[in-house]
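Q: For a teaching handout, I want to show students what a protein-ligand complex looks like in token form. Below are the inputs, and the small molecule is fe (ii) ion. Please produce the holo structure.
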Amino acid sequence: MLKQFSIVPDILEFDTCKEFSQHFNLGKGDLIFTSKRCYEKYFKENASDAHVIFRGDYGKGEPSDVMVEAIYEDIKDIPYTRVFAIGGGTIIDVAKLFALETFTPVGDLFYTKKITPKQTKELIIVPTTCGTGSEVTNISILELTAYETKLGLADKNLFPHYAVLIPELLNDLPLSFFATSSIDALVHATESYLSPKATSFSQAFSIKAIEMILSGYKKICAEGLDTRYKYNKEFLTASTYAGIAFGNAGTGAVHAMSYPLGAKYHVPHGEANYAIFTGVFKTYQKKNPDGAIHTLNETIATILGCDISCVYEELEALLNQLLPKKNLGSYGVKPEELKAFTENVMTKQGRLTANNYVPLSEEEVYEIYQQLY
Ligand SMILES: [Fe+2]
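A: Here is the structure, written as tokens, with fe (ii) ion included.
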């Protein structure tokens, strides 16, 4: 028997935040984790009795153990039965923990595994970016400052009950967030397509997400970057498709290799992925050009209208219009750190590297970092 596929959360879509708030009757007993701006603009009027916490009150940057511990101190005495996460990857990944019976010390949940996750509250997730896919996965990813790394925790107790899509929320997404989040979704779709755990079911979601994202980019680049809001629904849907794909098949070396960069230099997740993306895929292509990567490259070349031989160059030319690719040196990485990055990938990111299209040796990972430097 080979398990083929599953989607756990119910996926709901609302035209407006007001409809969503009324449907769920937001109020007493609810914990809402969001940004102040989003709350005031879209939810304040319809959720006044809920307990609301703002991400901005707990530091900037990617989600971390420090942030989770600080929030825990503020909510530990609040009685709540439902958790609403309304935000990007940081808010969602952190809020998933609030639905657990016990989630501190965070290191014991993620690293030493002394805490066994047990979901005791209802979890409702509303993405405000078009990238994380976390609304449909059972994964939470945190920077563990205590261990100087980013780690993912995957457990069925982290699945949301509802993933809620509200396209109007993307109207507030600045271009840089639109670019980094949608590129993250593209990486989710491509990495999961190549994963050894991929099935024809997950690949169908991967391919559809890739088609929607790349043809969306083509339209936006042709019509002007400000026209992107016209395609909110397409990008939000594509991001969730990619989430469904990687929730089943996983992501691999691109994510694994981007984590040390993201953790050490606070590079936004999608941007760190983009810095690594084609470096890994070019190596995959060299090592096994005839497997799933051939079909993937053919699909991308058809969408881009280019020859398969220059698919990565053309892909970068398109993505660079939204987010110029940078080399690792320009983030402040020092050449001597590449060994430590490599070691981190080889020793701490096994959850991800198990999903590599072909196995990558320590030397190969190091070489990819050097080429991207
Ligand atoms: Fe990602």
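A: Two things your students might notice: Strands lie at 10-13, 30-34, 51-54, 82-87, 122-127, 139-144, 149-154, 162-165. The chain is about 50% helix and 10% strand.
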